[in-house]
Amino acid sequence: MKYTFTMSMVAMIAMTTRAFVSTRVVKPVSDLGRHSTITIIGNNNSPKRSFQSTTARPFFQKLFDALKPGKSAEQIGFTEMKDLLSKLDKQGRKKVKTVVLDVRSVPEVSETGPLSPSVVNLPLNLIQAGAFDLSEKDFEQKFKFSKPHMTDETLVFSCKSGMRAGVAADLATASGYENVMVYSGSANEWFSRK
Q1: Better-scored residue on pLDDT, 127 or 40
Q2: Phi-psi region for residue 92, left (φ > 0), alpha (ψ -120 to 50) or beta?
Q3: Nearest of 119, 95, 140, 89 to residue 183 by alpha carbon
């Protein structure tokens, strides 16, 4: 088998359906044979680089995992999140020095309710639009809560399944936040186990 991809296709693949896309073929990772020829074309028509792979599927699985959002953040599970929210509910943001941000849309949060009274809703589209780049005054005026401190507070992101939380964590890290975490189970896990 032979597959040809541009680097932008590889990035698109990793960010969407975990499928291999070429002009002729759409194949799930599991359909790649053990003896596949992979051709990756660099950007701006740089030379093609082909390689034979007896381990094509594991190679691309590792590639997908490496490109997955949230790699810049520590991942926390259900137990850690439950303990953290309990602490936040009892002691408050200032003592715990942590802000938990739910990046689901407002209708999504309305449907299930918040994870906890301490969780603040800041939809991903607002983060992508530059929320973390606003001044403290503008941030508070726009979102009705104080902007998280870049070094003194920990940001914990949650969404419905963990993917958008990972994107938000990467954006926060790119904006200069040093202490960033992702609740990997997110709302799906929270409401099924709570």
Answers
A1: 127
A2: left
A3: 119
Q: Are residues 12 and 105 in the same domain?
A: no
Last-in-domain residue among 20, 41, 67: 67
Q: Do 104 and 38 share a domain, yes or no?
A: no
Q: What are phi and psi of 144, to 5 degrees?
A: 65, 25
Does 34 score more than 70 pLDDT?
Answer: no
Q: Are residues 111 and 58 in the same domain?
A: no
Using the 3D structure, point to which of 67, 82, 106 is the last residue of a domain: 67
pLDDT tens string 136-190: 999 999 999 999 999 999 999 999 998 899 999 999 999 999 999 999 889 999 9
**Boundaries of domain holding 34:** 2-67
List, by residue number, the catalytic residues: 159
Identify whether residues 78 and 157 lie together within a single domain: yes
**Which residues are registered as beta bridge partners of 38?**
3, 51
Residue indicated by tokens 């969404």: 159
pLDDT digits (tens, 9 = 90+) for 91-122: 999 999 999 999 999 999 999 999 999 999 99
Residues 54 and 82 in one domain: no
